[in-house]
Design brief:
By secondary structure, this protein is mostly beta strands. The protein is built from 7 helices and 35 strands.
């Protein structure tokens, strides 16, 4: 099992930004005796970026009517009601101090003048958190991002929606619950499976991953420390499941035994080098399904399991060995559907985008990706220092700023890979904004994109806690932003197969229900403001969730022609009128070199979804000391591309062998040459299941 952060390691499976109103009372008795007196100040805590409402201090003598007026004030200050001094203040800038002079009168005192001073606090790193508000900043990297390429949550924060009351569980290798910028949001419910207590802080001082993930979700905002989480007032709990993996610990860390968390962040996964059969992790998957649809949990509203798609676009690690293609490709080496967890349907799978709005250089993708979010690149402060995916720039583009393990002798700062002051000055302990090395600017991966979606869902539930799991997902997909990236997000990718061209990535595909889907981005990049607005206005009935059960093709003997777009083809008829929310396939096919196979699913409306791309990392039958792989064996795959269409009609599947040449792979420092299959493959069985309403 590998944690899905590009800069991390492989694990094998066996208080708000405040404006303090310091108030000085200068009382002038007009028409009477003169003089002045001082009254203790009222303290107001106001978050920059949020609209604050309060009342101007005034004498309360009897029940006399008042007339308030402001003598001078900045544009951000508005007197809402002159009869009671009610005002609002909104600013997105830290302007130091603002002095506001106002006066009021009543029937007993002709005129009273007063002054309030607004003193502002800040999150010192917020201005560099491009994923929250992208102004084209560098986030301490060499290259800048592109203004506007962010999750769009300014209006949500302005309205004071910050995740209050929603608990998010970080399931990872551990979580430093005493971190200065996390501790205020930590609540009871964490588990340490190693030490048997309630403190999941990792034993290894180099283990930063879960702490970084938690910071992206819910670093405390407006407290003069670090940055800000997506949901800066959400509750956090942590489970160090990855440090003590067992079925019992999986169950306990993913909702069993405690009922406080509504959202579970799963920034982890497995690199598979052979297809998994239908029985893979059935107990774990059944537990997830129960927690999502169990009517006894949260009044039947369900829990959320947010899952990283993977970081295997160009390479994967298996048994501590690096595997990658010897030639570059527009297709992912690790397709998201290679993981059964990602294909299960009850997990919300997330791919990653960088600060320029492109698909991130490492991001795994496939037809089960539901939504995308910023994950960044590698954050080096120098150019030409790190070659990533044959692109020098990507190593020096912004990563995600978040919490690191506390101190310069732990976390990322401790790693020799990031000890260069030239490349990573923010991590060195000499940077004025990070002298204790409590924060990092190099967190990336779908591990970083996933907690952004977890935080976004916390904001949606803060706005409308009565939403169930399907309603939230519907809101996310209908409000997501259609990313038009520079790496083919809006264009097809083609291979030459035999003498013909074959499309292996469709770009944005509109379906018969007027939804558009893209294997790279799912339904698009999360748009928090639009999602929260939709949550507040929600009045839609999605109907009762159901599925048609598995429809089995029976035994087949369909030959798969080698290196030919003709492919193997089969179809089945579904008579249900269910409206599609997701479609699953279980595939069985023999093939000596299954990484050649492209698998296409076609709906009755004619919408095509490529549920498996070729040139992938299913190399099991070519790797020494690994069980021989003869093809797919009841292997689960998922597509979201048909959302909203009718299930009724003829569904088709097509398997295309896309290559007849010898293919070379890099296995560590050696080259692995794989000859073409000697005989054509055979489609022997497939099953289809539609889930929807």
């Amino acid at each position: 099992m590998q944690r899905l952060n590009n800069i991390y390691y492989q694990i094998k499976k066996n208080t708000k930004l405040s404006i303090v109103l310091v108030i000085t009372f200068l009382i002038n008795a007009c028409g009477g005796s003169s003089g002045s007196s001082s009254t203790p100040a009222d303290d107001f805590s106001v978050s920059i970026g949020q609209t604050f409402h309060s009342t101007l201090p005034g004498a309360i003598a009897g029940n006399q009517p008042y007339i308030f007026s402001v003598i001078n004030a900045p544009a951000e200050f508005t007197l809402l009601d002159a009869s009671n001094g009610r005002f609002s203040y909104f600013s997105t800038e830290n302007s130091g101090e603002q002095v506001i002079n106002y006066r009021y009168s009543d029937s007993q005192t002709q005129l009273v003048d007063k002054t309030i001073t607004l003193k502002m606090k800040d999150d010192p790193l917020f201005s560099q958190q491009w994923h929250l508000q992208n102004t084209g900043q560098k986030a301490f990297a060499f290259y800048a991002g592109t203004a506007g390429e962010d999750i769009n949550l300014t209006q949500t924060i302005k309205e004071g929606i910050d995740g209050s009351g929603i608990t998010v569980a970080v399931v990872d290798g551990g979580l430093e619950i005493a971190h200065e910028d996390l501790q205020p949001n930590i609540v009871s419910g964490s588990r340490d499976f190693v030490g048997g207590d309630s403190d999941p802080t990792p034993a290894s001082i180099s283990d930063f991953h879960g702490t970084a993930v938690a910071g992206i979700i819910a670093s405390k905002g407006w407290n003069d420390l670090g940055g800000r989480g997506v949901a800066p007032n959400a509750n956090l709990i942590g489970f160090n499941y990855l440090s003590a993996q067992s079925l019992a610990n999986f169950t306990a860390s993913h909702g069993g035994g405690e009922n406080t968390a509504r959202i579970y962040n799963m920034s982890y996964g497995v690199n598979y080098i052979e297809p998994q059969g239908g029985g893979h992790n059935d107990s774990e998957l059944a537990h997830i399904e129960d927690q999502v649809i169990n009517s006894n949990l949260f009044d039947g509203l369900g829990r959320f399991y947010i899952k990283a798609s993977g970081n295997g676009f160009d390479r994967i690690y298996f048994n501590e060995t690096n595997y990658q293609r010897s030639a570059s490709s527009e297709l992912p080496f690790q397709n998201s559907n290679q993981s059964p967890f990602n294909a299960y349907g009850y997990t919300t799978v997330v791919s990653a985008i960088n600060a320029a709005g492109d698909i991130a250089s490492y991001s795994t993708w496939g037809s089960n990706v539901f939504i995308s979010a910023p994950g960044g690149e590698y954050g080096s402060a120098t150019s030409n220092t790190l070659l990533v995916n044959n692109n020098e720039a990507e190593g020096s583009e912004p990563a995600i700023i978040t919490t690191d393990r506390s101190g310069c002798n732990s976390g990322i700062s401790r790693s020799s890979s990031f000890s260069s002051v030239t490349r990573y000055p923010f991590l060195s302990g000499i940077h004025a904004l990070n002298p204790q090395c409590n924060y990092s600017n190099v967190m990336n991966g779908t591990s970083a994109a996933t907690p952004i979606i977890s935080g976004a869902i916390a904001l949606i539930l803060d706005a409308n806690p009565a939403l169930d799991w399907r309603e939230v997902r519907h809101i996310l997909l209908t409000t997501a932003e259609k990313v038009q990236d520079g790496q083919g997000g809006d264009a097809d990718d083609e291979l030459t197969v035999g003498s013909s061209s074959f499309v292996v990535h469709d770009g944005w595909v509109p379906n018969d229900a007027s939804y558009s889907y893209n294997n790279k981005f799912g339904f698009g990049r999360v748009n928090v403001d639009a999602a929260v607005a939709a949550a507040k206005a929600w009045n839609t009935d999605l109907g009762t969730f159901n599925n048609i059960g598995w429809i089995d093709s029976g035994a087949l003997t369909q030959s798969i022609p080698n290196n030919s777009t003709t492919g193997a083809f089969d179809e089945t008829t579904i008579t249900s009128s269910l409206t599609v929310e997701m479609v699953q396939v279980r595939l069985t096919a023999t093939h000596e070199r299954i990484q050649d196979l492209a698998i296409v699913l076609i709906s009755p409306a004619g919408t095509e979804s490529i549920i498996m791309t070729p040139n992938n990392s299913f190399l099991g039958n070519q790797i020494p000391n690994v069980q021989d792989v003869t093809g797919y064996n009841d292997t689960l795959m998922l597509s979201h591309a048909f959302y909203g269409e009718s299930a009724n009609g003829i569904w088709k599947i097509k398997l295309v062998d896309t290559s007849g040449a010898t293919i070379s792979y890099l296995r560590g420092s050696s080259t692995l040459n794989v000859s073409d299959n000697s005989t054509p493959g055979i489609l022997t069985n497939w099953k289809i299941r539609v889930l929807g309403h």
